[in-house]
3-oxoacid CoA-transferase
Amino acid sequence: MSGFNKVVASYDEAMAGLKDDMTIIAGGFGLCGIPEGLIAQIQKMGTKGLTVVSNNCGVDGFGLGLLLEKHQIKKMVASYVGENALFEKQLLDGELEVELTPQGTLAEKMRAGGAGIPAFYTATGYGTPVGEGKEVREFNGRPHILEESVTGDFAIVRAWKADTMGNCIYRHTAQNFNPMAATAGKITVVEAEEIVQPGELAPTEIQTPGIYVDRVIQGQFEKRIERKVTRDA
């Protein structure tokens, strides 16, 4: 694999180097835009003691929820966890450490980490349990808390299209956490719905430049509905 072709042929190769007690930053929102195959590979590897940073932890039996089945996650940093009964059980049983973070703060933690910014001030969370024990400074008459950025040993993201050099574009709401997550990993692995040749993506459309990406794999995805709600006509 040359520096100009980052495509790998197998999930084993895609996640090579992942070890116990590492930190993984995962893109996606709910079940939208999640790197399903990479998550399944982590479950297959049985890697344990993981710290996972993602908006949520999937649902029972799908997405990041798969990693709870073998108790592979030691700590979860997320903004929403309400769709996963196993997550709730492990939390209440003291088997899982959870750090709940406001959604915008979590996105900025990833973005700042990828930009080399170690911490930032935000008014969000001041005066709540989120702000307890954190440094406070006042800006323009309003108190702000200091939040540390995050980086990971691995970042796993899902792209709509990626070229062989790792340049990526995302589709619709998959744009929310994936671009930030992609910048914040020491090793960033992209699972793409479609892989194209260099030059096929318009430069103005690229949302993650290939400089951030180490590996690209062709994904096979299952479209799931997180919560189906119906009503009588």
